[in-house]
Amino acid sequence: MTTDWNGLLTDQLDWYWTHLLRPRLAGLTDAEYFWEPVEGCWNIRPAGTSPWPSAAGSGDWTIDYAFPEPAPPPVTTISWRLGHLVVGVLGTRLAAHFGGPETDYGSFAYAGTAEEALRQLDTRYAEWTAGVRSSARRGWSSPAAPPRARSPRRRWARSSCTSPARSSTTARRPAPCATCGRTAR
Q: Which residue has the higher pLDDT, 135 or 96?
């Protein structure tokens, strides 16, 4: 019996995309996209306006960050999480595994509207799934990459399957309170 790795990988990611992530982002407004529930959030901001010591991006908007990451880490906004998904989760893996365009936090042009961010996300998701579907000849049990300091050497299939799927559940629209109707973190 052979394992249909392409089917397993795309089915897993597509289930998260279809049932958990994308429906929660439907109708996302700019106010929700940039909303900061507490002071000191990491966000996407107009270039040159970040209160953090570092910001990355090549366009009119940049993403907040600090290195090393503060303890405790800052609350992240929906815009920050979408930027992370587009660049750090799908974009870098698309480049590493499927020959997609080189993507990094410093050279990416972040979205200044919710609509544009969702367009970027939809595009990256489509590129990622097309890459997985087209890689039938890849050795799915071969090593994914050299070991990193934080993780042991992992097989390509597990690496490709878990990171984008797990990360896709983190960018969600907060639900309104049943009592007062306000949206909270």
A: 96
- Phi first, then psi: give them for residue 166, nearest 5 degrees: -65, -45
pLDDT at 48: 96
Measured CA to CA, the distance from residue 124 to residue 28 in angstroms comes to 18
On the question of pLDDT at 181 being above 90, the answer is no
CA–CA distance, 165 with 138 (Å, rounded to integer): 20
Could you tell me the CA-to-CA distances from 137 to 4, 57, 59, 141, 164 in Å, in that order? 11, 35, 37, 11, 21
Q: Report yes or no: 12 and 169 within 8 Å, Cβ to Cβ.
A: no
Please give the average per-residue pLDDT across 4-13, as a whole number.
82
Whether 57 contacts 63, CB under 8 Å = yes
Q: Are 173 and 34 within 8 A, CB to CB? A: no
Pinpoint the alpha helices (H) of 87-152. 92-98, 114-133
For 24-65, the DSSP string reads: HHTT--HHHHH--SSTT-B-EEETT--SSSEEE-SSSEEEEE
Q: What is the pLDDT of residues 37-90, one digit of tens each?
A: 999 999 999 999 999 989 999 999 999 999 999 999 999 999 999 999 999 999
Which DSSP letter does residue 108 get?
-
Query: Are 94 and 108 spatial neighbours (Cβ–Cβ below 8 Å)?
Result: no
